[in-house]
Amino acid sequence: MKKETLCVHSGTYHDPATRGVNSPIYTSSSYEYLDRQECPYPRYFNTPNQEVVVKKMCALEHSDAGLLFSSGMAAISTAVLALAGAGDHVILLDDLYGGTHAFATGEFQRLGIEYSFVETDATAIFKAQKKNTRVIVIESPTNPLLKVLDIRKVADFARKEGIVTIIDNTFATPIHQNPILMGIDIVVHSGTKYLGGHSDICCGFVLTSSEKAARIRSMAHCLGGSLNAMTASLLERSIKTLAIRVKRQTENAEKIAVFLKDHPAIEKVNYPGLPDFHGHEIAKTQMAGFGAMLSFEVDVKRVRPEIFVRRLALIRPAVSLGGVESLICSPALTSHVKMSAAERKRVGITDSLFRLSVGIEDAQDLEDDLDQALR
Ligand SMILES: *Cc1c(COP(=O)(O)O)cnc(C)c1O
Predict the structure, then answer these.
(1) Average pLDDT over residues 338-342
(2) Helices in 190-241 by DSSP H: which ranges?
(3) Which atom in ligand 1 lies closest to the alpha carbon of residue 139?
(4) Which residue has better confidence, 344 or 93?
(5) What's the domain count of the chain?
(6) Domain limits at 190?
(7) How far apart are the first and last CA of the chain?
(8) What is the pTM of this model?
(9) pLDDT for position 338
(10) How far apart are CA 375 and CA 89, in angstroms?
């Protein structure tokens, strides 16, 4: 079945007692244990509401198994800690999500885990391999410059070398990109973004083979980080509209990318869907659509960035992304504020760069708002 259908129907638990069309919410944290093998418990990641939403995501990401977490970072940190320990080496992209970056730089050394940060390029990953490399952590497209990595190349290399690959698929969503079909071992998501889709819940996923899920599950039992039934149910409801939301958001982003590219007050637009964008050709081979995240630089000779953002009337300056409403942020002041100015300059995150998470509003209304603020 197609993604739209899977979003609506897969995983739903049909309660024979009421025959309601939606999975009921089971609030119990305690379940009877007599005459059964496995007893549900929230921190065992196996309650009915956790399981229905995991089933839905397994269908969308083509994975055998998965775990639902209380945040994206809980999913990422639990997966990494389950697979890498003292004496192991981990390769990570240098423009990974800030929280993942901080997890490596802040915690790995104390745990005896070696690590290398490399640029978003398959060859750079190959070159960073050491004898003790166990895990590679990647993202594509990246935040906020939307760099595209050749996922198949990295997956093929890692398979041959016996290295486990983890990809953060938050930006692309399972609607546009299915890394497991390209040979990646583990997909993680911040469900706080597109999966939740309404900027009102925090959650995360690990999706992988049954064997790797069992290993990650035992680490998850120790670290906790499970999600409650109420939020799991809200998430299940949200994912029903994931495909139509993401498709509409992507259509809007494609229009806005072209509009901004042609605008006299704009220096540069980063969007994988633009034919002359450096990652466009690879993106075409691994994404079904180019997504709804883009970034752009205003021309500082015409526009003061700090005034521009205050003049927007519809698009709100706020952190996070992936919701139905369009949000804009300045990475230099938000996600990358802890990076030194010199380091930001090196990686291309200028003070005139803005990241736009395009929502489901009318594209013309969004363009009009950007245009009046730029003027
Ligand atoms: C937000 C985000 C995360 C972290 O997710 P939380 O739900 O905030 O813990 C990880 N990766 C990416 C790409 C994100 O955008």
Answers:
(1) 81
(2) 210-223, 229-239
(3) 13
(4) 93
(5) 2
(6) 3-239
(7) 47
(8) 0.97
(9) 78
(10) 50
Q: What is the pLDDT of residue 346?
A: 83
Question: Which amino acids are annotated catalytic?
Answer: 43, 97, 168, 193
Distances (CA, A) of 22 to 10, 73, 241, 327: 11, 29, 14, 31
Edge to edge, the sheet with strand 89-93 lists: 65-69, 204-208, 186-190, 164-168, 133-139, 89-93, 114-118
What element of type H or E holds 308? helix 305-311
β-bridge mates for residue 188, sequence order: 168, 206
Distance of CA 72 to the CA centre of its chain: 8
Q: What is the pLDDT of residue 344?
A: 85
Contacts 24+ apart (CB under 8 A), 120-123: 120/93, 120/94, 120/95, 120/147, 120/148, 120/149, 121/149, 122/149, 122/150, 122/153, 122/154, 122/157
Q: Tell me, what DSSP letter sits at residue 119?
A: -
| pLDDT for 253 | 98
Residue 368 phi, psi dihedral angles, 5° rounding? -60, -40
Whether 73 and 163 share a structural domain: yes
Whether residue 235 sits in one domain with residue 330: no
From atom 6 of ligand 1, which residue's Cα is the shortest distance away? 72
> What's the CA gap between 86 and 292, in Å, rounded?
39
Mutational test site, ligand 1, from 70, 103, 170, 320, max ligand atoms within 8 Å of CB: 170
In the chain, the percentage of residues whose pLDDT exceeds 70 is: 100
Segment 110-118 mean pLDDT: 98
Are residue 233 and residue 294 in the same domain, yes or no?
A: no
In this prediction, residue 7 carries a pLDDT of 98
Token pair for 204: 């995360």
Together in a domain, 231 and 249: no
269 in the same domain as 343: yes
Residues 260 and 336 in one domain: yes
Instruction: Tell me how far the alpha carbon of residue 190 lies from the centroid of ligand 1, in angstroms.
Output: 4
**Would you state the pLDDT for residue 307?**
97
pLDDT in tens, 186-202: 999 999 999 999 999 99
Predicted local confidence at residue 339, as pLDDT: 77
* Partners of 189 in beta bridges: 205
Provide mean pLDDT across the span 1-21: 97
